[in-house]
Amino acid sequence: MDKKILYRGDGLVGHIAFNNPKKLNSFDFHTIKELSNILDKIAKSRVRVVVVAGNGKAFSSGGDIEWEKEIGTLSKQEAKAQISFVQKTFSRMESMPQVFIALIDGYAVGGGNELAMACDIRIATENAKFLHPEVSLGTVAPLGATKRLPRLIGSGRAKYMFFTGESIGGKKAVEWGLADFLVSEKKIKEFMGSLLKKIAEKPVHALYLTKKSINSSFKKDLLDNFEAESYIKCSRSMENKELLDSFMKKKK
To answer: By the 8 A CB rule, do 183 and 125 touch?
Structure first.
């Protein structure tokens, strides 16, 4: 069975790649447990900077629809345990000493963008597309987006993305502050090589303490019970079930 996430360490640099290209790198609970195990490995290593990317045509299309449908059938306790675990795993990247860089080439949808926003720096290619379809599917973004997104781009623009479900490209993402750099496909290898070298050669304790200081107030309320409970409540609604079924039919 192919692994849904791949990891390799190269000296001071680590590479995490979501590896489910047939489903645009969507993830389920088991995939995030894989990610958590990889973070355990990184925490014990000498790696200083980690690139998070996706294989194929997407960074990540977020939660697998089949998993989202399954959440609606679980007990509230089990559903909340799964959502809370994913919240904690994403938030953990903000607490670790390593610098995490999201390389967004293609779609960052819903939970995929929540993953990208949990990284320290976001690099978008010209093919990048960011969107939050949760409201359109009758639910709520449960993995920190209702906090991270308005802090990055402002509450009005965040509400626009949530309320309309419209996508924005890499150029607009940089203009709004959702992505930090826009790099062409031709220059991405050179750009990433230079950025990784600059960060990896910095003193490890200075990197960690600077990151910790910046994130100390920014992330204190990101493990959000209201987000999780709202998502679970919506997952049990007939409206959400019908919208997810309709979405699946359209895909087929």
So the answer is: yes
The CATH number that applies at residue 86 is 3.90.226.10
Residue burial 71-104, b: 16+ Cβ < 10 Å; e: rest: bbebeeeebbebbbebbebbbbbbebebbbbbbb
Q: What is the pLDDT of residue 54?
A: 98
Residue 215 lies in a domain: no
Provide the 10 A C-beta neighbour count for residue 11: 9
According to DSSP, the residues that pair with 16 across neighbouring strands are: 7, 52
Return the residue matching tokens 């089949």: 66
Which segments in the chain show pLDDT lower than 70? 1, 219-224, 244, 247-252
Q: How far is CA 118 from the centre of its chain?
A: 6
Reduced to 3 DSSP states, what percent helix, strand and coil does the chain have, rounded to the nearest 5? Answer: 55, 20, 30
Instruction: Report the domain count for the chain.
Output: 1
Tell me whether residue 200 is in a domain. Answer: no
Q: Which residue has the tokens 């001071």?
A: 12
Residue with tokens 């967004």: 104
Whole-prediction pTM: 0.92
- 246: alpha, beta or left, given left = phi > 0 and alpha = psi -120 to 50? alpha
State the residue range of the domain holding 171. 5-187+220-251
> What is the CA angle 184-187-191, rounded to 5?
110
Residue 186 is classified by DSSP as T
Query: Does residue 212 belong to any structural domain of this protein?
Result: no
The H or E element that residue 178 is part of is none
Nearest Cα to Cα of residue 149 among 129, 173, 128:
173
